[in-house]
Amino acid sequence: MLKDIIENNENYQPGLSIDCVIFGFHDNQLKVLLIKVDRNPKWSLPGGFIPIDQDIDTAAVTILNDRTGVDGIFLRQFATFGKVKRNDQHFDKKVLEYLEIEEAKGKWLMRRFVTIGYYALVDFLKTIPKPSSDREIVEWIDHKEVPELILDHKEILDKALNTLRTELNLMPIGYNLLPEKFTIPELQKLYETILDKKLDRRNFLRKITNIGILKKLDEKKSNVAHKAPNLYSFDKEKYDEVLKNGLNQGW
Amino acid sequence: MLKDIIENNENYQPGLSIDCVIFGFHDNQLKVLLIKVDRNPKWSLPGGFIPIDQDIDTAAVTILNDRTGVDGIFLRQFATFGKVKRNDQHFDKKVLEYLEIEEAKGKWLMRRFVTIGYYALVDFLKTIPKPSSDREIVEWIDHKEVPELILDHKEILDKALNTLRTELNLMPIGYNLLPEKFTIPELQKLYETILDKKLDRRNFLRKITNIGILKKLDEKKSNVAHKAPNLYSFDKEKYDEVLKNGLNQGW
User: Fold this and answer.
1) Is any Cβ of chain A less than 8 angstroms from the Cβ of B210?
2) Taking the domains of chain A in order of start, what are their residue ranges?
3) CATH architecture, domain defined by B2-167
4) Which end of chain B is more exposed for a tag (fewer CB within 10 A), N or C?
């Protein structure tokens, strides 16, 4: 892919890239989808470049789909990163040496490029990571155990996580991260994992019920020894309404 | 400035610009600082390009200061705009004809450039708009009476306003928009103007007091016939603390 961009430099928006922070929830962990190119010791966020004939939002969807197999998901732009030194020496040394690309010299790819950060919330069980070549590994990693990342990707990831925490106060988010049917304790665990703190059970129940987006199903969780908890799903219509108008009436 | 960028194309980050939405509060109006270049019938947001040796955040501060005389203010990146057609034909027709710049052809400035939006909150009375040339007019305009803007600047302005409304629920904002001393009704009016709705006086008083950022002064508003209201100022230390940790304890 990098080779294609260097050879077809003119077909891409100069000096600009996109990086995606993809969150999934599984085993009570908030996981992040990361990529590693075989000989490079560091991991990276899935990212790519922007064809000159594509809107940036479209390019983000395409990159996400091409590099991870993830499709039709909740994707939001959250910030743009452009420190002068953000990709200093990254491409001209390590990667290019590795790719043995001589002709790259002097092209925009060799200078600073600014990157637009998007974050995605996906259903872990429906997401099958798909590497774009057999030189790549794509893996879900617990956000608390993220290894060393290239460039400023750690900063991008941290900012995405902070945005997600803030947005918990502004909109519902469970629809994209939980399976179709879930229990209240499972939903609470999702919130606790994102916020990284324990929540009071009764307060949580009251608040989440007040939002009015839950549908109690006539069904109980199976495989549970006794006192099986009730299953719920989201009332999609109301959910979308709250998503549009915001959670917090605030002032 | 445009001429400089075309002649020194290599010194700027290719394909990228910055636009600033500058809000001020005066006469119970939320105003926006807009620029008009004399013969162009449309107005625009103050904006500019990014020197290759500057971080984008630094470039935003510089642009804001150079084009408006505004300094040391609350400035935040809020979104990046990159539709393919966003500056279609803008520069290659109108502006270049006007500037009579032949050599611009084929440079990145002639293609789509993506723009990073920043918004600023400033004290209206301390802000003296400063045009960067005598061909420009810089003016405060009520956000409800914004004339036709170039490119997608209306979309950028709307998005900034929406961000500001959302952030009213997340952080205090009055410090940057009000004079040092103010009355509670003045503060309430600021909130009402941004949210474009009436607020209940008692609820507002209770909520704003609970945040714990106000300092009651031993001083009353002068020039008021009778029952002069008390003056307040912000407790800057507490204000900054809330700004850092967020207004809403939420979950």
Assistant:
1) no
2) 2-167, 174-245
3) Alpha-Beta Complex (3.90)
4) N
What are the φ/ψ torsions at residue B59 (nearest 5 degrees)?
Answer: -60, -40
Measured distance CA(A136)–CA(A68) in Å, rounded: 11
3-class secondary structure, A224: coil
Name the DSSP class of A91: I
Q: Compute the CA torsion angle A13, A14, A16, A19 (nearest 10 deg).
A: 60
What tokens appear for A18 in the block? Answer: 């996109």
End-to-end CA distance of chain A: 49
- At how many degrees (to 10) do helices B184-195 and B201-211 cross? 100
Residues of A with Cβ-Cβ distance to B195 under 8 angstroms:
251
pLDDT at A134 over 80: yes
Q: Is B207 on the interface with A (CB under 8 A)?
A: yes
| AA letter at B72 | G
Tokens 């908030």 locate to A30
**Separation between Cα atoms, residue B11 and residue B51, nearest integer Å:** 6
| Residues from chain B contacting residue A201 (CB–CB below 8 Å) | none
10-residue mean pLDDT series, chain B (251 residues): 71 92 94 89 93 95 82 88 81 57 63 92 85 86 96 96 90 90 95 94 93 92 78 94 79 75
The pLDDT of residue B152 is 94
**The predicted structure's pLDDT at residue B178:** 93
Give the separation between CA A215 and CA A175, rounded to whole angstroms: 12
A236 contacts chain B (CB < 8 A):
no
Mean pLDDT of A103-129: 82
CATH fold, domain A174-245, is Arc Repressor Mutant, subunit A (1.10.10)
> For A105-152, what is the HEC assignment?
CCCHHHCCCEEEEEEEEECHHHCCCCCCCCCEEEEEEEHHHCCCECCC
